[in-house]
Amino acid sequence: MKKSDKKKKNGILVSYLWSAPSLILISLIVIFPILYTGYISLTNMNVYHWFNYDLIGLQNYKEALLVFDSGFLSALMLTIIWTAVNMIVQLVIAYVLASLLNTKGLKLRNGYRTLLIFPWAMPGYVSILLWKTGMFNSQFGLLNQWMERLGFSPVKWLADDLSAFICCTIVNLWLALPFMITIIDGALQSVDQSFYESALLDGAGWLKRTWYITIPSIKPIIAPSVVITIFTTFKQFDVIYLMTQQAGAKTGAHIHTILTYAYENAFITNNYGYSSAVSMIIFVLLIIFSYAINIKPKEES
Amino acid sequence: MRRRKGKQNLKLLLVNLVLILVCFVTFVPILYAFSVSINEQNSLLGSDFSFIPKQVTLENYRKVFTEEPVLMWFRNSLLLAVSTVVISLGTGVPAAYIFSRRKFPGRNVILQLLILLYAFPSLLSMTALYKLLSPMGLINTKVGLIIVYTGTMAVFALWNMKGYFDTIPIEIEESAMIDGADPIRIVLKIVIPLAKPTIAVTAMMVLIYVWNEYIFAINFMTGESTYTLAAGLYSLQANETSGSWPVFSAASLLVSLPILIIFFAMQRNMASGLTSGGVKG
What we know:
The structure holds two protein chains of two kinds.
Chain A: H1 2-40, H2 59-66, H3 72-101, H4 109-116, H5 118-121, H6 124-136, H7 142-149, H8 161-189, H9 193-201, H10 206-234, H11 238-244, E1 245-246, E2 249-250, H12 258-268, H13 272-292, E3 296-297
Antiparallel strand pairs in A: 1-2
Helix pairs in contact in A: 1-13, 2-13, 3-8, 3-10, 6-11, 8-10, 8-11, 12-13
Chain B: H1 2-37, H2 59-67, H3 70-101, H4 107-119, H5 126-133, H6 142-165, H7 171-178, H8 183-194, H9 196-212, H10 215-220, H11 229-238, H12 245-273, E1 279-280
């Protein structure tokens, strides 16, 4: 009895020892800075008060959550719209393309697939910058060259909010579709073909088959990836930042997701205390969000 | 019967046409950048641009190497990427193994915490990281960036590899245990060979992350000589003029090349090595 107790204790010790390097690393570099962000959020730290800042309580939180003009709430609204629009369009297009790839008798299937996932393999920021400079630039972008050839006057694609939002959505789709197509394509391949055969015998049309067989069958398979994509879309920073608001090169559009908003307050207007408060609010939102959709370690289901 | 076959063929033709069109649209930005980068006369402002350049030149690629310190940026990126991969995997593999195999007090709490941390974008604690690293003299140093990157990737590495270890049957290890092998031997001789796909994919993801990270790199590094490729490329495009755009497009394609090669070489392992973070929706 005593011996096995000792052995168990020893086992626990070994477990801690083996995982210690990783956990210490995470505590120091990830957890501690988050706690420190929480502390900064209670101060008036900014570029003038970089060392001699004071604790000001929940002032920053009040400003973010209660003062509508501060811009946080509208950024949050926009982020939600952004996520919804992107997810819906992305799922529909990915589903259609994956279905086309699964057409019976399609010989070049693998060729198309390789071409379609190409954007996934490109470094994200490079793609965004190529889109921004190559396609959307108002002087020498390809879109305006086409416009000119068709006899229209050049357009400043990124200068007003709505058109910038659409341009950002296009770029985000371009970046995100390959992953979604791969996931849905894989799910479609796993659907039992005999379901379709019996449905065809019953005379079910394409819409009925999609609605009653395909979608219910692929739903559980694609669900985890869709959840992860919702997260990454919600947390999207690169597309909107690089397209419209690089330091010193703002395009005129004023669209902010919560992440670009937090970043701008920290590193452009140097309002560190306020930006940290925004960061903490975002963190809490993400926590609520992950509980709401019930993400759990797999084994505990 | 024949008519049905005709209909089938028409449908296939249409599907092929749509897919060809979609593939073309997908490639427009890349093709355009490529064609600009090899075009002799950069008549960008005129409307007589065509995808197939009239005169091909490698001048822009030469400029990338001679006029910009690209090789130095490349060295910096490589150094950062390799260090981050080594540290995050070196600490991550044993931890992921333990979290997959052993039950110990605090395990579940830590796992729950890790998933929350995984959801937290490191961008949001940038101010705090800056404030913490700056008194230690680690701003504008490679060590500082390695610290930031390792922390971010340690969570991912632990979580992703634990998910894969869970799928390896424990019986193999148990029989080795009965034969009297010690745990370190078991991990080195049995577990790591079995976990190769996930270790390779995790290493690739960490590498790609560091290769592509620009926002910490431009805020924590000042001065061209300390830039990574991503930061350097970012600074190249920041002075967006029609003159610099051909050089930038050449540089973009060069920087993407290694990532493209790694990605397509690893593609077969992707599905098995990436466990979607071991989460269920």
